[in-house]
Amino acid sequence: MPRRQERESERTCIVTRRGLPPEALIRFVVAPDGAVVPDLRHRLPGRGAWVTASAEAVRLAERKHLFTRAFAAPVKVEPGLAERVDGLLAAAAVAALSLTRKAGTLVGGFAKVESALAGKPVVGLIHAREAAADGVARLAAAARRRYGERPPPVVRCFDGAQLDLAFGRSNVIHAALLAGPASDNVLARVRDLVRYRTDAADQRDDRKTNALGELSAASAGP
Prior knowledge:
The chain is α+β, with helices and mostly antiparallel strands. About 50% of the residues lie in helices and about 15% in strands.
């Protein structure tokens, strides 16, 4: 019975034809105007087409006209679908980060992050993509002093403008996530974004999948 339930919970990717759990896929539906749109929360009504959660797979689905086949009807796919999905995933991560600030589990600024690493329950470090190498290295050293060989995961998928938006102020380069449900949600949203920006072939490599699970998120946007 458990195995049957597990199989029933899977969906088939229209690109690879592999069965995967819904969280490893992106669902697409057809809007009233006939356009294919992403349904990241799996909540929109109507028939869905499922694609492995990677930009590479979405581009293949668009290029090979697989959405028309999946929906068994003519549909419109506006150019740049993969990039639009990336933008939605990035926006979801930034919104989650903003909620951690409101929940009181996000600190920003080099000195505050360094202080947090000295005694607070840090579950993640965030550096803007343009952060200077020496600042990143100093905070990494502080994390190692506190946590040894298992420091908190490091997030590098945001730029300074996105961090400014999340904090509601300017010039945020370094931040730290403190333990709490809101921070767990940020790490989950970042994992979604990093996985999407990782080639589908790499996702099938157990070693790289495990590394992704550890959340060393250094990928940049399109």
